[in-house]
UniProtKB/TrEMBL annotation:
Residues 221-230 have a biased composition (Polar residues). The keyword Lipoprotein applies. Residues 205-230 are annotated as: Disordered. The gene is traT. Residues 1-18 form the signal peptide. The keyword Iron-sulfur does not apply. It is found in: Cell outer membrane. Keywords: Lipoprotein, Membrane, Palmitate, Signal. Pfam families: TraT. It is a lipid-anchor. This is Complement resistance protein TraT. InterPro entries: TraT_complement-R.
Length: 274
């Protein structure tokens, strides 16, 4: 009989733990906790260049994509569809495009809450394939912790469930960090110095600063070492680094990814001249 009662209690506790996240989010809505609902946003760690709007016939873009992270994220179709939705003609031959957008997923995973992925992005060094002299603006906010232990302590099986709700109420944030080389066609060849490898352990790239980034936080500048080469081409390569983030109470990876993909779709054409 005792073993049956113990098994029943354990099953009850397991069920309560399984619902801790849902309960915490419901309580968060009642207390106006900003992490109760899923949120997403972007941080332009290296902002898009401010280019002249293209003429109607010049709104042609070649888009390529590779994933060099540990994730299985595939964004090529999303990038192409988003560009088409915004009136761009996506071409298959890169030699016929006015612009060439080459995107690389560098990282997808959990990051510090409220960092927007900028701290992780700041350690990735220069953008391989981009011209040097591109500045970096890093928006960083302090990490926060929403704790509903006091409200939860009297629910269910006492302190045990209270601890579970405390953990479930903690904000978790996920970020997708994408490097983009945006190549712009010029009728005359242009000589430039290009980064051929990425440095690590550095916050940003030396150069001029552009404040086009997410609201909040501040900016930082520093130096990144890396291999370079002098090239001459009709396509000048601008570097862009974007972090797309999502957070919520106890957010799981499978909850974060749809939020991040939808946000990415909305900002694709902000990389292209408007």
């Amino acid at each position: 009989m005792k073993s049956i009662r113990l098994a029943t209690v354990l099953m009850l506790v397991a069920a309560l733990f399984a619902g801790c996240t849902s309960v915490s989010r419901q309580l968060g809505n009642l207390t106006d906790n900003k992490y109760a609902e899923a949120r997403s946003g972007t941080v332009w760690v290296v902002p898009p260049p401010q280019l002249e709007p293209p003429a109607g016939g010049d709104r042609t873009v070649y888009i390529s994509y590779r994933n060099i992270s540990d994730s299985d994220i595939e964004l090529l179709n999303l990038l192409k569809e988003s560009a088409r939705e915004q009136g761009w003609s996506v071409v298959n031959d890169p030699s016929t495009a006015k612009y060439r957008l080459r995107a690389s997923t560098r990282y997808f995973g959990e990051v510090e809450p409220e960092s927007g992925g900028a701290i992780a992005a700041g350690t990735m060094g220069a953008i391989a394939g981009a011209a040097t002299g591109i500045g970096t603006g890093v928006a960083v906010a302090a990490a926060t912790d929403s704790n509903l232990a006091g409200a939860a302590a009297g629910i269910g099986v006492g302190g045990l469930v209270g601890a579970g709700l405390t953990n479930a109420s903690r904000p978790r944030e996920w970020a997708l960090i994408i490097d983009v080389v945006l190549e712009e066609y010029h009728s005359e060849p242009v000589e430039f110095t290009m980064v051929t490898g990425s440095a690590s352990g550095t916050r940003d790239v030396a150069g001029t600063h552009n404040s086009r980034m997410a609201s909040g936080g501040g900016t930082a500048q520093g130096n990144a070492s890396g291999a370079t080469a002098t090239r001459t081409s009709n396509y000048f390569p601008h570097g862009i680094r974007l972090s797309v983030w999502a957070n919520q109470m106890n957010m799981k990876e499978e909850e974060a990814l749809p939020e991040i993909e939808e946000r990415t779709r909305r900002v694709v054409t902000q990389m292209l001249p408007m």
